[in-house]
Each structure stands twice: as C-alpha cells, then as structure tokens.
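TL;DR need structure tokens for one chain.
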Amino acid sequence: MLAGEWEPDRIALTSPTKNDELSLEWHLGVRATDLNIAEKKVMLDSGQPISYDGAIIATGARCISLRMTGDLQGIYTLRGLDDAIAIRSEFEKTPQKVVVVGAGFIGAEVAATARQRGLDVTMIEAAEVPFERVLGTEMGTVTANVHRDHGVEVITGTPVESFKGKERVEKVVLANGTEIDADIVIVGIGVRPNTEWLDNSGLTIDNGIVCDETCQAAPGIVAAGDVARWPNRLFGEHMRVEHWDNAVEQGVYAARRLLTGENKIEPYAPTPWFWTDQFDRKIQLAGRTRSTDEVQIITGSTEERRFAAAYGRDGKLVGILGFNRPRHVMQYKQMITDGVSWEDALEHAKSS
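>> reply
TL;DR here they are.
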C-alpha cells in the first residue's frame, strides 16, 4: 500500500460479515487502563468495567520515538494504517529527500519502497553494520549492500543527534556533526510492548508480559503477540517475538490454552520466522539467530544476492536465512523444529 499499488480496503484483516458470524461485542475508541485479577474486570478509560471469565491480552507494541523531534512536521513512525496513509501521501508529493532513521527491517522496507518510487533515500543506522544483531556481520553487510546496489545511501556507525527546521523538518543532524537534507523522515528504531496499563495488575512484567510455556500469565489469563514473553523450550530461552506470523499463531494457541483450562496442552514452542520484500529480493529468516552464531552458505552466493545461509550454535541448527530461496528456508525451518544438529544440517547441505 505504501508503494501506491494497493488501497486500504485491500489490506483489511476483518469484515462486517465475519464480525456478525462471530457475535463479537466491540468497544472501539476506548483504552484499557487497568486489570483487576481478583474481581476479573478490565477497566476502560471511559470508566466502564468489563467483566470476564477468561482474558487474552494482545495489546501489542508501539513505536519508539526520538525525543528530539519536538513539534516538527514531516517526521513519522510506521505502525498502523493511519501511519502508512500519511507516509504514502508524503511520497505522492515527490519529496526531494527521504531520510530513514534505523536500518531494521521496517526501516529497510520503507527505504526500498521509497527508492522504488524514484525518490532519493538516505538510511541511517547507529550500529556499524545494519542488521548485525540479528544476522551477524557478514549477512548484515550483504543486506545493506542490496540497498546500496539500488541507490540508497546507507550511513552507519553514527546516531542521530537532532533535527533542524522551522515548522517542518529540513535537516537531520548526526552525532558527528554531519547534516543531511530531509523533506520527510521515517523513524524505525524498534518498538516497546504496551504493558503500562498492567502496572498494578499483579502480573509479572519484564520486557513484555511474562508467561509460562503455555502462554499463561495468571490463572484464566493468557497473552499473545508482540506483548507476550514466554520460555520457548525449542531454543531454551525466554523470547518475545515481534513478527506478524507469530502474532497469528500465538493468538490461536493462546485461545486454545484458555479454553482447555488446566487440561494438558503441549507447550508453545514454534520456530519463529518472517519475510520481507526489499527491491527484487524476498528475504526470509527462520529460527533464533545471534550475531555470534556460526554461519555457512549452503546454496547460491552472496555476490549474486541469491543464497541460503544456515546458522549454528552449541552444536544445533538454530537459523536459516534465504535471499530468493524459499524452498531452502522452509526445508531448514522444519529441520530446526526437528532439533537437527549443526553437523547433520551441514551434511544435508553437501548431499543435496
């Protein structure tokens, strides 16, 4: 939609017909402000309490903003439909210079979309290597170079210090004193889980709502999506996953967990994965990767920007990254789920 190829109605996730079939009662335009576990009530900012027998908390996350933006116009974050419509409207005015702050996958997608619309784009990343925390140095560099190949100016290792302009942003000032012209700025530096309304609830909050391995936060209460943090036994770590696919799958699981009560249910232990389309590359990542993992190219080449790379840690296959290699990603994703060893994964790559 940001590219101008779709209209908002095409990306709707629900419809009035489906709502009628499910007999849902909506409370729109109000916020939850408190959760009373003892009385089983959710308080709304309208003053109305909502009683419940069971509760699924799926309050998601919100974009982290830069405090130094002040009241300057032309600075955006991208989280919801209104954000996308506003940014697209700016793009349609053909700004001379688009600046993206943050080279994570949201920032990179926005940069790619703007560049494909023929706009002049600069992407700024505070880290020395974009995507390094997730992909490691080598693969992070490859991903950044895809953008450089398509004319995006990628500036790394220097955070943003401030913005200049009268009523509207005109320049982005870096910590080293460099000033970059800007007609529009999109900030993509991560998200923060929406948990403040639960501060007095008695639930454990630590980078999200802390749940057990079945997504239960307290008796009769489960959590799902960006706001939920739970122990994933497949990887032996607590995780909070900010991917669309996980929000869908975990939402289904959490509802099932709520309905089964104390009956036995298998722990929620998925292999997280996501995809991102940037220029002519479909980039897919499955597993739980770290910058310190061992990385091996199992097919293709990084020079052609068409390859698959496997990630290993502590003798196990823990991740698979693919550039236009969907078959390999899906195959190795299943191997991660099956607990295949790093040695066996590499042997499979040699024989296939």
